[in-house]
Structure formats: C-alpha cells, structure tokens
Task: structure prediction
Amino acid sequence: MMHDPTLVVEIRELLPEDGWARYEDTGRATVACSCGLNTGWIPKTEAARIAQDHPTAPKGTAPMPQPSIGRIVHVAADPSMNNGADIAPAVITRVWSDTVVNVRVLLDGDSAPQWRTSLTHTDTLDDVADDVRLSRWTWPPRT
Ligand SMILES: [Zn+2]
Result:
C-alpha cells in the first residue's frame, strides 16, 4: 500500500482590519493519506505526531536510513553545469535532523563542489516543483 501523508494546518479568516485581510491559526490540523487515513481537525501537535509516525513508504520495504556526515545523497542539478544531467551526487557535510542536511554537490564537471544548506528530504526529485528542487535531497535509488 502506498502512503503519502499530508499535514494541513487550519487557518481561519478574520474580519479585515484597516482594509487588510487577516488570518488566524486555529491550532488545529488534519492529516490525510492515500491509504485512507483522515484524522479530521485535531490539535496541531497531535496531528504533527501522527504525520511523523505515519509510514511514508510502501509497507515491507526497509526503513529509510538516517542521514549522517559523509553519506552520499542525490540532489537536483542545473544540467548546463552538470554535463547534461539534472541529478548530481552530494556528500552530507552536516546533519540538522533526520530530514534536513547540508551538502557539498559533486557536479559532473570541473567546478568546485557547491555548498547547499538546510536541504529537506524528498522521496523523489521527479515531481518536485522547480522553485524548490534545489533545496531538496533524496536517497539514491536502491539498485
Ligand atoms: Zn498512509
């Protein structure tokens, strides 16, 4: 079964003040997933915990490895800088959390390794929007 849990934070629109639209965080959030999970509006901290505990990969696969300094991951690259390829390997140089790391990008060319900071994990770079692709990393596919 595929999982793709999404956490949505509830926002309430308030009466405009001085002509400015105003919004308020209600403190509630909901988690929904392609497996059928739908928590409805619950306290945000509870929703965050459920989203974090929820599987994000098909059942039966090995758990995701933890990032650690020196491991190689994949990041998006500008093909014009990378011998035509849009993915490049990168070495983790700092681990901020299980999903956020700094890396040095090893382009397929003679440029010095590029430093990218606070990249967030994504399961795949394929369906990531262009404007955030450069701030994501993913594990190399298992072969
Ligand atoms: Zn699920």
In short: The mean pLDDT is 89.
